[in-house]
């Protein structure tokens, strides 16, 4: 990950609810600025990790330090540095935006004299300045999410935790919220949790992946994209050769028959593999009719990373 002073340091974090461990030996740090993605399938341990990070849940073992403050030993002091937007934004729909943000500022025990200015600043930051007198129930999903983000940053926390922040939004709203998150991350650290791979890829600079309660990846988004790059192509030919002959194409590592004259060809990462396969298919008279690159699914990525971790242990 990018070398920066860390605002969060998590070491040896483990928790179990009964006899089963929800997470085991989670270790990572979060830089002072930027968006860190927390990626995992449903039930992987993301929510447990975030609840411990935010002081909602006491861990079975390990430590969470927020700017050097131990969350378990000094929870009130540590929580002052955190803003949190859960998956379902905690909105009071009978409030106006101004009323709700003022209420949230009081919950954060902000100085009474600073609250009006803080409300104005956070509305400007989140693009809702002109809607201060509008009832929350009359806002679209995208604007409700903006209000949810506003309440999470009104007290200017060092760390903002966002859980599935783009869930349920339409494509335009998703783009707007992504942009807002990146702008906020220029001033503070954000941890963005999602089970949707494309959201993490579009929003985050760094990424941590948890599967079955274990960390299976921690690096930059660029490193992740290199790992999870498209690794196979799907090709359909009218006069295909044998699997063995297809497997002898330079760069091809494995060939699978998917259906009549349709094959999945895994390759070694060569950037020009599609052109190479098409060119050879034409030269050999295999008569290719369809060729497409195939993305690794999230399940495949988790399986690969989990297997890699098991082999290294």
Q: What's the gist of this structure?
A:
The chain has helices at residues 46-53, 75-79, 97-107, 115-125, 141-153, 171-184, 197-203, 221-227, 243-247, 273-284, 298-312; strands spanning 6-16, 21-31, 34-39, 61-66, 69-70, 82-85, 159-163, 189-194, 206-211, 214-220, 232-237, 252-259, 262-267, 288-294. By secondary structure, it is an alpha/beta fold. The chain has 2 domains: 6-227, P-loop containing nucleotide triphosphate hydrolases (Rossmann fold); 232-295, 2-Layer Sandwich (Alpha-Beta Plaits).
Task: Tell me about this structure.
- With 313 residues, this protein is α/β, with parallel strands linked by helices.
- The protein has 2 domains: 6-227, P-loop containing nucleotide triphosphate hydrolases (Rossmann fold, 3-Layer(aba) Sandwich), CATH 3.40.50; 232-295, Alpha-Beta Plaits (2-Layer Sandwich).
- 35% of the residues lie in helices and 29% in strands.
- It contains 11 helices and 14 strands.
- The chain has helices at 46-53, 75-79, 97-107, 115-125, 141-153, 171-184, 197-203, 221-227, 243-247, 273-284, 298-312; strands spanning 6-16, 21-31, 34-39, 61-66, 69-70, 82-85, 159-163, 189-194, 206-211, 214-220, 232-237, 252-259, 262-267, 288-294.
- The strands form 3 sheets. The protein has a 6-stranded mixed beta sheet, sandwiched between helices.
- A hairpin with a 2-residue loop joins strand 12 and strand 13.
- The radius of gyration is 24 Å and the shape is elongated.
- The two termini are 22 Å apart.
- The model has no long low-confidence stretch (mean pLDDT 89).
